[in-house]
Amino acid sequence: MLNSLDQLKELCRMGQPVTVSVACAADRKVLQSLRDASEEISLSALLFGRKEEILSLLSSLEISSDLFSVVDCSDEKSACAAAVRAISEGKADVLMKGDVPTASIMREVLNKEYGLVKDTLLSHVALIESPYYHKLIALSDGAMNIAPTLAEKASILENSVHFMHALGVGKPKAAILAAIEKVNEKMEATLDAAELVKMAGKGRFPKSLVDGPFALDNAVSSEAAQKKGIVSPVAGDADILLVPDIECGNVLYKALNFMGGAHSAGLILGASAPVILTSRADSETTKLYSIFLAAAVAGSRR
Amino acid sequence: MLNSLDQLKELCRMGQPVTVSVACAADRKVLQSLRDASEEISLSALLFGRKEEILSLLSSLEISSDLFSVVDCSDEKSACAAAVRAISEGKADVLMKGDVPTASIMREVLNKEYGLVKDTLLSHVALIESPYYHKLIALSDGAMNIAPTLAEKASILENSVHFMHALGVGKPKAAILAAIEKVNEKMEATLDAAELVKMAGKGRFPKSLVDGPFALDNAVSSEAAQKKGIVSPVAGDADILLVPDIECGNVLYKALNFMGGAHSAGLILGASAPVILTSRADSETTKLYSIFLAAAVAGSRR
């Protein structure tokens, strides 16, 4: 059972060494976090961008260029394209955003010719360590899909289940969240939850246990579930929280991180390689753990 | 500044004594919490329901009937109606749900003849004490309005602002929540936030500061807001969090209470008196603080 983000390092050490492909790598914090990560796990990096800028940053950060190969690219678009191609050509295992807008790198990820997406849906997952929960819990999607349809929710759930499998959780328990635990025709989140549970019954999400709708308390607290008379193996023991939309997911993610003492790591799932899109607002810890998380997922795939 | 729910007791002691009207009062936990509350603040109660059952419960709980008057009612409907009439006739200041479904009591609250609602919208507010925030924060609406329209959001915000005024917060700061802090046409929550800010500019919410859209982190953390370059008196210092819908509000409420070490109290606003609708799932603390909260609001009105 995973109960701390630090265990991600152990997972990385058990898996294969990984190479990170960084688009527009002239970013001090990105390079620092890659250096910090490489001191703890087997990790190398291909740095795409303006070579001079990158080399000068590496030198000012006193990072030896042994683990990091720099590939000169004249502009943002070519750096993003080259970083993505490195993945599709099998030269790297994880894609990471450097000093470039998310939209620019995602455009290349979605490129039909050499991109990383076939017929899957991209989704964001956060892996959260909360002092108020007995194990790590995955939350999806609080950052990418705005108002997913039922079919999209199914894809998001599928991505999350595969993600937990990659982390060694053999049969993750997924709680489909809503405001209440009963199906109510006026509340789409509860109707979709019931449909997802039906899909699960038909084998759509192999090696998982899917149940819902749940209000959050019943998904994470056995005591709360008991008080409500809810009997489900998922109640109080969820590994995955599937939220109905981005507002709900984002608020939950932020509540745990900013008003709940939690730490977290985040990834984009659904592409042929994990994608790290950390932002300025993320803490150093989040950036570092996101690299470990991507490496653990990628290392388990090879 | 209010920074602990315990201060509600002080507010009650500064205000007028209040009388609670309880619909279907034959409920052990409700009577216990009323007794506990009456030991700390000036509070009496009118107990509507089957007189024999109530008296027998009071006796088994060793509650003296000095502060509690029992009014015999033959059935649920008449008990709810009588409890509501006690408010409209000025005999009581706070309505409280006993052992009766929420729908039954709300039907009487909304009764056109003797009910407690004119042209206002009813909304739920939770007042939350979080160990990760420097003051109490109000959250609305995570329990009553499912998917409020812009006009309904304005009413919910209005109720919340009046509520904070009643608690002595002269100029509450309200953060309109969304998943991001920029207006995005694909995200209704951000469009509505911008409209609410415009309404505020035109004086719709007197004696308040309204801003948004905010992602939660920017509403409650000055550091997060600074990192994002957000300059607003509301950023990092919100008194009120207005959520876009019930899923978002409920998940936030539950996250803080079940995965954030918070305590809270809850009320229904918008009627001519505060309404307490505690549920089986609420902790004893929540029940007790909800009574203090209702009494503080009612006591400030008289």
Content of β-strand of chain A: 15-25%
Rg of chain A (C-alpha, Å): 19 Å
Largest sheet of chain A: 6 strands, mixed
Please, what is the average pLDDT of chain A?
95
Dominant shape of chain A: elongated
Strand line-up of the largest beta sheet of chain A = 8-7-9-6-5-10
Question: What structural class do the secondary elements of chain A suggest?
Answer: alpha/beta
| Overall strand count of chain A | 11
Secondary structure: helix percent of chain A: 40-55%
Order of helices and strands of chain A: HEHEHEHEHEEHEHEHHEHEEH
Uncertain runs of chain A are none
User: What oligomeric state do these chains adopt?
Assistant: homodimer
Termini gap of chain A: 22 Å
Number of helices of chain A: 11
Largest interface: A-B, 42 and 42 residues
Write a short abstract of this structure.
Chain A is of the alpha/beta class and 302 residues long. Chain A contains 11 helices and 11 strands. Chain A has helices at 7-14, 28-38, 51-60, 76-88, 102-109, 150-166, 188-201, 216-220, 222-227, 246-259, 284-301; strands at 18-23, 43-49, 68-72, 94-97, 123-129, 137-140, 173-177, 209-214, 240-242, 263-269, 275-276.
List keywords for this structure.
homodimer, 302 residues, alpha/beta, 6-stranded mixed sheet, 5-stranded parallel sheet, elongated
